[in-house]
Specification:
The strands form 2 sheets. A 5-stranded mixed sheet has the order 3-4-7-5-6. Strands 1-2 form a two-stranded antiparallel sheet. The chain has helices at 9-21, 26-32, 49-63, 68-72, 83-89, 94-103, 137-155, 175-185, 202-205, 214-231, 236-247, 255-261, 266-275, 280-298, 303-309, 315-326, 330-335, and strands at residues 6-8, 46-48, 112-119, 122-129, 166-168, 189-190, 196-201. The relative contact order is 0.10. It is built from 17 helices and 7 strands. Strand 3 (112-119) and strand 4 (122-129) form a beta hairpin. It is an alpha+beta fold.
Length: 340
């Protein structure tokens, strides 16, 4: 990761718009936080996390509102997430969108570790802050509120309908704050929890999105990767992973092909992956294993279809690889009750 902790400028733009709407001088607070207000005219730029931390603290003090993060989400739109917003809209289903959001969460901030985890009845979207970065509860509130807002938009869900979700937050809250969070999220909210997490039901996870366009999503992934490459030149394995995911249905990608797409020679690709304690084959193997388990757990995808999606030349090759990963054949794994 880049040595500098940064957040995309659009996060600051949404915060300043909220402040201005509440009668506070957002530009003056940006200056007081030690940042240049000119950043607010550059939606592609990055703001230092230290400056954003100071801006959040000044904003909460100026408004006297500990629930300010919820208000800022009103000014969050797909474009707030740069090209990732379009990629999310074009995702196949909500699970695809959540995985994309986690994979490219650094576009919002490279101090946030966003992951999806299986959970009883659905999937948890978990957000953790890096240990050496200041934790801003209001920024986490904004992230969770924005994730919910994007999810409702992606699904075409009526915001007034009941939401079968649950929110957990590590922060504490006063009784009035608890009431406001409950109103905003319209779901159970658990404070002083072990993680910051949004539990999303399986019925939402598997639902196809109305604007699904896999080809457009893969093309937009490349735009996201190009943006990330400007400030995050270290995590090559993740860029290789994204390239492989987009190419696997056409067959196993050649290493030279992926290296060329990343404007690298094969030798440089190998060296840089080795520096990250991995290899091209290891990244490919990890992707295939993760996707195989995901597809087979879905219960609706045949072994033949999974073989094709993972770029294997024939089903026997896939079966050998899957047995190496799990000790079982794909058919045996798929037949297990817990896999369904």
């Amino acid at each position: 990761m880049s040595s500098e902790a940064t957040t995309i400028n659009t996060w600051a733009i949404a915060l300043v718009r909220t402040l201005d709407a509440r009668g506070c001088d957002g530009h003056a607070l940006v200056t007081a936080a030690g940042m240049d207000p000119a950043m607010l005219a550059d939606p592609n730029g990055r703001a230092p996390v230290g400056g954003m931390t100071r801006l959040w603290r000044l904003a909460v003090d100026a408004t006297g509102d500990p629930c300010l993060g919820l208000k800022v989400s009103a000014f969050v739109q797909p474009a707030t997430f740069h090209s990732l917003g379009l990629a999310l809209l074009a995702s196949q289903n909500l699970e695809d969108a959540l995985e994309r959001m986690a994979r490219f969460s650094r576009i919002v901030s490279n101090v946030a570790d966003v992951r999806t985890e299986p959970a009883p009845g659905g999937v948890r979207l978990v957000a953790r802050w890096l240990a050496d970065s200041p934790v801003v509860p209001e920024a986490i509130d904004l992230l969770m509120a924005s994730a919910l807002k994007m999810g409702l938009l992606l699904l075409g869900q009526d915001p007034s309908l009941p939401r079968p979700i649950e929110l957990s937050l590590r922060r504490s809250a006063t009784p009035p704050m608890r009431e406001e969070f409950a109103r905003h999220f319209a779901c159970p909210v658990h404070f002083e929890a072990a993680d910051n997490a949004l539990l999303i039901p399986q019925e939402w996870i598997n639902r196809s999105l109305p604007m699904a366009n896999p080809q457009l999503a893969r093309q937009t992934d490349l735009v996201v990767m190009d943006y990330l490459a400007r400030f995050d030149g270290a995590r090559l394995a993740e860029k290789v992973r994204a390239e492989l995911i987009s190419r696997l249905p056409a067959g196993e990608p050649a290493r030279a092909e992926v290296a060329s797409a990343l404007n690298l020679s094969e030798k440089t690709l190998q060296r840089r992956l080795r520096d990250e304690h991995t290899s091209y084959q290891q990244v490919l193997d990890d992707i295939r294993r993760d996707l195989a388990l995901k597809y087979l757990n879905d219960g609706r995808t045949s072994v033949c279809t999974v073989t094709f999606k993972l770029g294997f030349s024939d089903q026997s090759s896939f079966t050998r690889a899957f047995r190496r990963w799990t000790g079982e054949t794909p058919g045996e794994y798929k037949a297990r009750p817990q896999a369904a």
